[in-house]
Amino acid sequence: MAHTERHWTLCIDKLWSTQLKDPINCLTIGKPFIEDLSEENDILIGTTAGRGAVQTLNLQYLTGHGAKDLVVGDADGVVTLFSKQQILTKRPVVGGYEIIVGDTSGMISSFRQHDNLWKFNLEQWSRKMAADGTVKGSTISTVTCIHSARLTDLFGLQMSCLLMCSGNFLTERTKRRIMNDTVTKSRRTMDRKLDSPQVLLGGQDGNIYVMIDFEIYPWLRVGYYINQIICFRPSGLPDHEADLVICMGHSNEIKICHNGEIIADVETRDWPHTMTMGDVNTDGKDELVVGLLDQSVEVYRYRVDYL
Fold first, then answer.
1. By its UniProt entry, which InterPro entries does this protein fall under (predicted)?
2. Which domain holds residue 95?
3. Is residue 287 located within the same domain as residue 248?
4. Diameter over CA atoms, the chain
5. Which residues of 256-285 are buried (b: 16+ CB within 10 A; e: fewer)?
């Protein structure tokens, strides 16, 4: 694989870490219930302690009170909305809600409290791609992470998708290389990122795949079982540069990737279980917050050095 010429490097430093008493399920960063956002943000941590283990946390402006509200989903299927430090509503998921889950067999299912809405067998699709030669190796399709996004299809129409990670990861030359097209040899043309968003898929086989025009292509080999990938764009990165990708899984090394290459590693003291990005200290730059299997939280900052 040809290496991309960069005029910058990414440096990662640990800011601090702390130890918790309970296993960590999820993380989010923000300031709930407070309108004045001049203070440092909080790191909200969902753990297994309590009556129902917290599975997801989300901060959104929902009630119109001027401060962010906190939405919590737990292992009992209950969604709780907190507003101004009080429980505004607490209810099992029914009615217009839709739960979308993935399991270890590769089945993605959508359901409500009493109705099954639809199912998608990722295992069958994985086997089809292996038979077609699109991917190589194991066809085991355990689902570890699901997100939703709105993408543009081949006809320019917007559609809702379930995916692992979306962003602008490809440049014009990288797309041509992946699709085995002739790469221009001219050095006068600046390599620019593609305007339309792309989708990355993290695999149990240790590979990250990219979806181009609704076809799946290998993008990068990480080398370990992948649990989570997130899109990341450092402040000050030139507009023509592609987004960065942070990848974690069954390893104590978090990989940071750019344009199909690993450009930095973050070594943690145990396997990471969850991670998120956010401006913890309100300095205008996002920090990387990682929850580890040993029940600790580590916070890292980045620096972009231009050559």
1. Integrin_alpha_N (IPR028994)
2. 21-103+270-307
3. no
4. 62
5. bbbbbebbbebebeebbbbbbbbbbeeeeb
CA distances 33 to 65, 70, 84, 106, 207, Å, are 9, 8, 5, 38, 40
Q: Which residues contact 67 (CB under 8 A, 6 or more apart)?
A: 31, 32, 33, 34, 35, 61, 84
276 and 247 belong to one structural domain: no
CA 292, 296, 299, 300 torsion-angle sign? negative
- What are the backbone dihedrals phi and psi of residue 127, each rounded to the nearest 5 degrees, phi first? -65, -35
**What would the pLDDT profile of 118-143 be if each residue is shown by its tens digit?**
666 666 666 666 666 655 555 555 55
In a domain, 10, yes or no: no
Q: Looking at the domain assignment, is residue 162 inside a domain?
A: yes
- In this predicted model, what pLDDT tens digit does every residue of 270-302 receive, in sequence order? 999 999 999 998 888 899 999 999 999 999 999
Amino acid at 233: R
Q: Do 160 and 213 reside in the same domain of the chain?
A: yes
> Are 160 and 255 members of one domain?
yes
- The span from the first CA to the last CA of the chain, in angstroms, equals 23
Look at the chain and report how many structural domains it folds into: 2
Q: Are 305 and 19 in contact (CB under 8 A)?
A: no
Q: Are 100 and 55 contacting, i.e. CB atoms less than 8 angstroms apart?
A: no
Q: Are 226 and 144 in contact (CB under 8 A)?
A: yes
**200 is a domain residue:** yes
Coil, helix or strand for 174? helix
